[in-house]
Amino acid sequence: MIDHISVGVSDLERAARFYEATLATLGLSRLVSRPATIGFGKTYPEFWINLRAGMMPVPHESGTHICLRAKTTGDVDAFHAAAVSAGGRSDGAPGIRPHDRVKYYAAFVIDPDGNRIEAVTFPSE
């Protein structure tokens, strides 16, 4: 349904370091570099960061977050650890999130600009 997504960042190089480390855990790498944008993906850019000079931090109350699919719970754990190590903040440690329809394993992080990013997988056990 969704072909690609993008988030605004106030410092492109800082964000590039954060997302290179974090997205690598999900198999995405930097595929496109331009003066004000960088695209990450597996075979084509699926996740973009775009420089927005003078951008204020994203308010936590915005309610917006982006969820990326992980293959395994280990990948979710690695995503969270890499994000925190690269300058992000935890917004929910890795773990099972039981819901009425489905059980899923997820972790939530906040990038240096306040963008909320989740990694999720659906364990079969």
From TrEMBL:
Cross-referenced InterPro entries: Glyas_Bleomycin-R_OHBP_Dase, Glyas_Fos-R_dOase_dom, VOC_core
Indicate the segments forming the VOC domain, all copies.
1-122
Q: Which domain of life is it from?
A: Bacteria
What PANTHER family does its record include?
BLR7706 PROTEIN, GLYOXALASE FAMILY PROTEIN (AFU_ORTHOLOGUE AFUA_5G14830)
According to UniProt, the name of this protein is VOC family protein
